[in-house]
Amino acid sequence: MRIFKNIVTYLFWIVVSILIALVYAQCIINPNAVSEDGFWYLLHLFFKIGMLQMALYIGLIIAFCFILIDVFYLKKNLKYKLKLNKYRVIALFVITVFVIIVHYILEKIIDVI
Question: Which domain holds residue 19?
Answer without folding.
Answer: 2-109
